Amino acid sequence: MTEQTVLIIDDEPDIRELLEITLLRMGLNTVTAGDVQTALDKIEQYQPNLCLTDMKLPDGNGIDIVRYLQKHHPHTPVAVITAFGSMDTAVEALKAGAYDFVSKPVDLPKLRELIQTALKLSAGKGRGQQTSNDDENSATHGSSILGNSPAMQLLKGTIHKLARSQAPVYIHGESGSGKELVAHQIHLQGSRAKAPFVPVNCGAIPENLMESEFFGHKKGSFTGAVVDKQGLFQAAHKGTLFLDEVADLPLTMQVKLLRAIQEGAVKPVGGLEEMAVDVRILSATHKSLEHEVAAGHFRQDLYYRLNVIKLKVPPLRERQEDILLLADFFLKKIAERWQMPPIRLSPAARDELAAYEFPGNVRELENVLERASTLCDNNTIQPDDLQLPTMLESATANAVVTPLPNPSPTRGEGQKGKVEVEVLPAWNPVDEEAERDLILRALEQTRWNRTKAAEVLGMSFRQLRYRIQKYGLDEG
Ligand SMILES: Nc1ncnc2c1ncn2[C@@H]1O[C@H](COP(=O)(O)OP(=O)(O)OP(=O)(O)O)[C@@H](O)[C@H]1O
């Protein structure tokens, strides 16, 4: 997937850092600026996909940035961060062309959602560019879907055929098996490749905003609708709309979606006229849509409409011969991203990976390798660095509560007796939720002194910093 860059503009270093960590964790590149002039320079230098700006800046304000972008880079969305309760400023920014606003104190989940939607819409608008990059990626890697196992060869053949048709495809398979990647390939190999591929996570849109997200809205149609807004259908016009986690659509929205698909037209909220849209619909879920229909959670008529062709993405354990190929690819990507020398797998680690079943599929493989890359010495991953199921099994099998190592008395300042180490459950790095919880508690115990928290946890500062970013565990 093409890496996207977000420019963060704020004069307060703490807020810049918080936003940076949040965005890095979303897999985005970040560039920062503390004033308007630096921001304008960085816009020209980095051509960001999105800008996020505070309103009050030492040499101007966020609206200066909005206006500049409107004039020189109209396809680059900009979101403004406004002071709590200052609705007027938000409206002014929206009128000037801001994509959206968030008010302080910044609600991070809301911000993440905003960024994701903005980047999707921005990708939709700057389509020609995006597509050619993706084509380039495909050309560089032969195909961006890796795997030579019989199961993958079959899948690739089917993708190729499906790309030539316009039929809706329902893609099913376990979480992390590559459903979105498959949908993207169907799009890229088809006639719609030059138009937008718009992925939407149906489970992530608040129900009250759903209609407006899908179909857009007219200015003034509801409180907060201060400008006309394009919907996902319109953004995907001539291209592909990928409805991920489609089983999570509420029933009321299912009716509207069915109608839009049937009519090939949508009516923005508050609008009087329907607009014709030409969109290919691909959908996916890790749930069983058949069960959802049987349970009355999913409309049968919509199910038939989406499930014209059903495509299964096999779990990684059914294509184990692809594991090492994927592993080498991910390690190369990690080393590039972290600007590190090449990371290798020891022969024993290769054997262990190849034999593991990966219940979390390709995404789990990627996560295991990211973690192992931070833990390994000499850029060589050993079996212990992988922390594969033995840890998980032992941790789940024995819910033993063991104390964490005490902080070293030789490091840190005034540590004796100050860092109270409560008895915490054993560190089980495979169970991400437990790991996150444990790290959070260690940070709280040490009043967010990361050096001390790392000592408490028995990990290096670098390892802890990586996890803080990964889990979004920042003080905000
Ligand atoms: N065959 C593959 N080659 C290269 N990368 C892959 C492959 N399959 C999956 N990936 C990578 O694994 C990660 C998970 O894939 P993806 O998001 O497509 O899975 P998914 O089935 O849609 O997951 P979910 O059910 O959680 O939405 C992505 O980073 C994707 O790029």
How would you sum up this structure, described in words?
Keywords: ATP-binding, DNA-binding, Nucleotide-binding, Phosphoprotein, Transcription, Transcription regulation. InterPro entries: AAA+_ATPase, AAA_lid_NorR, CheY-like_superfamily, Homeodomain-like_sf, HTH_Fis, P-loop_NTPase, Sig_transdc_resp-reg_receiver, Sigma_54_int. It is built from 21 helices and 16 strands. It has about 475 residues and is α/β, with parallel strands linked by helices. It has 4 domains: about 5-125, 3-Layer(aba) Sandwich (Rossmann fold), CATH 3.40.50; about 130-310, P-loop containing nucleotide triphosphate hydrolases (Rossmann fold, 3-Layer(aba) Sandwich); about 315-385, Orthogonal Bundle (Helicase, Ruva Protein, domain 3); about 400-475, Arc Repressor Mutant, subunit A (Orthogonal Bundle). It has a 5-stranded parallel sheet, with helices on both faces. A 5-stranded parallel sheet has the order 9-10-13-8-14. Strands 4-5 form a two-stranded antiparallel sheet. Helix 19 (about 430-445) packs across helix 20 (about 450-455) and helix 20 crosses helix 21 (about 460-470). It is globular and about 65 Å long. The two termini are about 30 Å apart. The model is unreliable at about 125-145 and about 390-430 (pLDDT under 50). The structure holds adenosine-5'-triphosphate. Adenosine-5'-triphosphate (ATP) binds near residues 146, 147, 176, 180 and 362.
